[in-house]
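Duplicate of earlier report; Thioesterase/thiol ester dehydrase-isomerase input re-posted below.
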Amino acid sequence: MSGEANQVEHEQILTSLEVEKIEVNLYRSKSLWLPLRGRGVFGGQVISQALVSATNCVDPRFSLHSLHCYFLTSASPSTPIVYEVDRVRNGRSYVTRTVKAIQNGHVIFVMLCSFQKPESWQPSHYWPMPDVPSPEECELDEERYVRLAQREGLHPKIVEIYTSMAAERTRSPIAVRIAGEHDVAEDGTIRYMYWMKARAIPKYETPFQKCILSYLSDMYFISSAAKILGLRRGGSGPNTLSMVSTLDHTIWFYSDDFHCGDWLLYVMHSPRTGSGRGVVHGRIYTRDGKLVAVTSQEGVVRADVRGPQTTNQSEPPSAKL
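Output:
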């Protein structure tokens, strides 16, 4: 029996994205999630809650086509986040909104998003979807962690980590199946490919579907840059990942015709890492091969390697970096 058919109770995506209106242009989070081994609240949740807030301040005739955001500091799961929307511009074809996420009086995140009246009659093109196994042929990520935990000769601490990861993935509102890890394309590009979908959701309208897609767009993303470098969590030394954290995130939407309750293929690759940073690009396809969104992200990707020691120790750090 598959993990999905025999899973424990998982969080609903609606709960993860829900915000409450507290004033005109002002919203507050109701649920925040700190991932296992995470430095702060899951970035995809902050993005999606900010987007829900912005979408509530836009005429429904306009459809989200892009968002650009910066993570300024980590968010604590113990204090609600307040989202302040600024209605920057209302045009005939495009409208613009900015969102500031505020926690304990500090701005922790900023987002600029743009909405347009769709122009479906315009010409279009897109890159084809890679040839990958169907979702039914791919292993659920929680099943993979269970399998890894059952290997013989593992240290009890490693078994505990795998078991915890399996439990976290099972509780997640997003199901993930591994379609291809460290897949090498014909041009030599190393790709990481995952089937993703929201578990057990009704047919929400397009604006909310885009909020769900924004949530899952941050999953596994910057970690693909660390994987290309061969960095692993745990231990110490130059092959160990000492820090990974998102700096900025962008999504461009090119379709209103998709449903996050159906499997979406997320194709990721990293063209460059260096100076303790990495950039990743992604493409999100429907199961029938239509490219619906393009993503990009830069993040901190640090190995456990010591650089030159600084001499000025008088000023304490003021942010997560």
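The chain has six helices and 13 strands.

Merging into the original ticket.
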